[in-house]
Amino acid sequence: MEWSTIQHLDLRHVGREAKPLQPHAAAFHPNQALIAAAVGKYIIEFDALTGSKISTIDIGSPAVRMSYSPTSGHVVIAILEDCTIRSCDFDAEQTCVLHSPEKKMERVSSDAEVHMALTPLQPVVFFGFHKRMSVTVVGTVEGGRSPTKIKTDLKKPIVNLFCHPRLPVLYVAYAEGLIRAYNIHTYAVLYTLQLDNTIKLLGAGAFAFHPTLEWLFVGDRRGTLLAWDVSTERPTMIGIIQVGSQPITSVAWLPALRLVATLSKDGALQVWKTRVVLNPNRAPMQANFFEAA
Q1: pTM metric for this prediction
Q2: pLDDT digits (tens, 9 = 90+) for 136-157
Q3: Residue 288 three-state SS
Q4: How far apart are CA 96 and CA 49, in angstroms?
């Protein structure tokens, strides 16, 4: 595999600022060759193949975290520095506030961790701030679901959020590596992913799902990569490997290569094979599940 071309996204002259600004958040469209980049108080959509600018929207405040909505065509949901949640519709070229903070003076810096999860099954977004103990859900369309604070059953700091790509399941990652799966309709606990005390974890830094199998890949902040089979009522951990000492910040399944890629905080990118299960009646050996590719 080799690069055949490269495109530069022209971020100059955005808002005609006195000095050029650096992009501080970005999101790829889930099924189209589009990328949205946040620069200052603007979000710009580009054609990822040609690098040409398609649209620019002024959202009023810098975005800290953003993602394309899986239930809309060209809509980006963004958490801003002023702690508001905004919807940016590139087709209509307009934006609307979905949620405002209770404390009007509350702010979060662009390098702070905020957590957001979207599901293709409902026009809602789940969000929370790092190491706080609550999750809020709000509709992603104007006039949709009003903000509701979800009372999780654990009094532990929350370190990440993730939604199952096909099922109505919200994963809430807590400190020390524990992960709870909740039904997105009732918020009842479906199951818990937790290792025994002999393996120390800090908490999930990244999630990814296999496109067809019920395999959940978790990158821990301690540098550990795990694989869980969540196809049964009692999920099992099927793979674990230490990829380094730095926190894993991103995990992705590469469908064309059938590999798992991990990105660590120090910039190290690694790729892993997953061993094929030859006997469907026996779980794979945990220690041999991942193999360097």
Answers
A1: 0.89
A2: 999 998 777 888 888 788 888 9
A3: helix
A4: 29
